[in-house]
Amino acid sequence: MKVKSLIIENAALCDEVAKVQENIQIVKDERKFLLHKLLEYENDVDNSHLYYKNEVASIINGAKTKPKKRKSQEESGKSSLP
């Protein structure tokens, strides 16, 4: 009888270990999922901050477009001489 009770107890402990391992795997998967979501969110926030900073800088500094250089008549192939 003693051996039979030990076998039953061992089986119960094995079942409990299997449940705990399954719960651990679920938590690991959830952690990975949440980490990926967090990294995506941080990337989006960083990109929006960069965009916002660039917009504010362009408003404060004014348009930074370079004026187009005029080509001289000689460069453009149009000579003023007949």
Count the domains: 1
Number of helices: 2
Indicate the structural class: mainly alpha
Helical percent range? over 70%
What is the radius of gyration?
36 Å
Give the percentage of residues in beta strands: under 5%
Largest sheet: none
Give the N-terminus to C-terminus distance in angstroms: 123 Å
Order of SSEs = HH
What does the overall shape look like? rod-shaped
| Mean pLDDT level | 81
The count of β-strands is 0
Query: Low-confidence segments, ≥5 residues, pLDDT <50?
Result: none
Domain INO80 complex subunit E N-terminal: 2-38
Protein name: INO80 complex subunit E N-terminal domain-containing protein
Organism: Leptosia nina
Biased composition (Basic and acidic residues): 72-82
Describe this structure in words.
There is one protein chain. This protein is mainly α. It has one domain (2-60). 78% of the residues lie in helices and 0% in strands. It is built from two helices and no strands. The chain has helices at 2-61, 73-76. The longest helix is centred in the middle third of the chain and has 60 residues, at 2-61. The model has no long low-confidence stretch (mean pLDDT 81). It holds the Pfam family INO80E. This is INO80 complex subunit E N-terminal domain-containing protein. InterPro entries: INO80E_N (IPR056515).
List keywords for this structure.
82 residues; mainly alpha; rod-shaped
